[in-house]
Structure formats: structure tokens, C-alpha cells
Design a protein that fits this description.
Order of helices and strands: EHEHEHEHEHEHHHEHHEE
Structural class: alpha/beta
Number of strands: 9
CATH topology of the largest domain: Rossmann fold
Largest sheet: 6 strands, parallel
Number of domains: 2
Shape: elongated
Length: 246
């Protein structure tokens, strides 16, 4: 095991998540580090959660029972928040993955980040902006279970939101431009996440940022010589680019 990998605590709100995302969710988390803790919260006596029960053992999720003592009160949220703070105080984790579409976790995400620990949020596109903005990065769970057919439909979104998307990427490129007039792809990606935690090329039908940038058709890419020992990609606006104002 690579000791340099980030240790992550994964906390899932079963009431506000779907079992169909679990495989894609854990694959996504694996790209950020090791899921040292995998807990999922809910009232397991409730038949509404029976879909989750079929995937708990398969994916090594530890179910945390929380009875709904009072109608209208979300005891699951409280249990998650208390456990998250207990785990935070151990100082054994480099990051937290909070899986929910509930705005109740906004303050929790902010509090964890205040301690210098990274927060990755996962939720549906209906997730309130307050929770999204409180995370270092937010991934829409629709992108974790996307089918080929859905990807084709989603590509139309790039035309619908083209002006806003072009402006966002253009600003990221300009903000990270070096003295030679080029921007490093890695720096562009980080700048986009800093400005918009929910930014994800998959939301526009592209698997990677480089694919999206190429798809926009207004940027020039330069690849470093792989024989130099390290390969990198740089980006800049084309001189004869189409107007952003149209």
C-alpha cells in the first residue's frame, strides 16, 4: 500500500443517496485516496432503504443505525455530523467524502475545511449551492452512473450553456497564463475547481478536461516532448477565435 495516498473518511446519507451510484462513487473516491472509513447512515428498519441493503456487504460499507425518533426530524443528519466531528478530532484523515444532496451538511463541510482538511461532496444536481460551495470539490452523482445514451443527450448542454462555459474556461486560462502566454492544463483544472467546486467535464458529455477544451474549438494545445522526461499539456486562446459576445 502506498503510504503517501490520502486517507479518506466516506460518510453516506442513505436517505438522500441512491444505491445505483455506489460502484461509480467508490471508483471516483479511489482516484483521490484510500477510503479508510466507509459508513452509511439511515434507519435500516425502514423499507425505503432496502435497495441499499443489497450492496452493503459487496462494497464493504458499514451501516450505522439511526432510528427516526420524531417525525419531521432528520436524525440521520445529526448522527453523521457527530461522527464526522469525532473522526476529524482524531486527525487521522486527510479528507472527508460527504455523500448527500442535503443542505444540512453545509456547516459541517465548512467546519472540516477550517481545520485544513479537504472535503469532497457528492450529490444530485438538485443539491443546494450552499453545500456545493462549502466543499473543495463537488461531484454530481448523475455523472457517476451515466449511460452512453445519457452522455449523448448531455453533450447538447454544451451548446445551451456555451457562453457561460466559454467564459469560465477562458478566465481560468487567462488567470494561469505564464510569461510565454501558455497555461498549464493542471493549473487550469485547479483554477476551475477553485472558482466552481461542481465543475466537471462529464456534466458536458466529456470524460476529461482536455476533451472539453478541445471540443470548445477556440483553444490551442501544445504537448511537451515525452522524451524530455515529463509530458505536460499547455493551453492558450487561438488568435483567430470566435467572439465570446455572440
Amino acid at each position: 500500500m502506498n503510504q503517501n495516498q490520502a486517507r479518506l473518511a466516506v460518510l453516506i446519507d442513505a436517505d438522500n443517496s441512491q444505491p445505483s451510484i455506489i460502484a461509480g462513487l467508490l471508483d471516483e473516491i479511489a482516484g483521490h485516496g484510500i477510503a479508510s472509513v466507509k459508513r452509511i447512515y439511515g434507519d435500516w428498519t425502514d423499507t425505503k432503504l432496502k435497495g441499499w441493503k443489497n450492496v452493503l456487504l459487496e462494497h464493504g460499507l458499514h451501516p450505522m443505525q439511526q432510528f427516526a425518533y420524531t417525525t419531521g426530524k432528520n436524525a440521520t443528519d445529526s448522527a453523521m455530523i457527530i461522527d464526522a466531528m469525532d473522526l476529524l478530532y482524531t486527525k487521522n484523515f486527510d479528507g472527508f467524502c460527504i455523500v448527500s444532496s442535503d443542505s444540512d451538511f453545509t456547516r459541517l463541510a465548512s467546519r472540516i475545511r477550517e481545520s485544513g482538511v479537504k472535503v469532497l461532496g457528492f450529490g444530485e444536481q438538485k443539491t443546494p449551492k450552499s453545500f456545493i460551495g462549502a466543499c473543495d470539490k463537488f461531484i454530481y452523482t448523475e455523472n457517476l452512473r451515466r449511460t452512453p445514451t445519457a452522455e449523448i443527450v448531455t453533450t447538447h448542454k454544451i451548446k445551451h450553456d456555451e457562453k457561460a462555459l466559454l467564459a469560465l474556461v477562458r478566465n481560468a486560462v487567462e488567470d494561469t497564463t505564464n510569461e510565454a502566454g501558455w497555461s498549464y492544463m493542471g493549473a487550469i483544472g485547479q483554477n476551475l475547481i477553485n472558482k466552481s467546486p461542481e465543475f466537471d467535464p462529464r456534466s458536458y458529455g466529456y470524460k476529461k478536461l482536455i476533451d472539453l477544451i478541445e471540443g470548445l474549438g477556440v483553444f490551442e494545445l501544445k504537448y511537451s516532448d515525452p522524451l524530455s522526461g515529463s509530458q505536460s499539456i499547455h493551453v492558450r486562446l487561438r488568435r483567430n477565435k470566435r467572439s465570446y459576445e455572440k
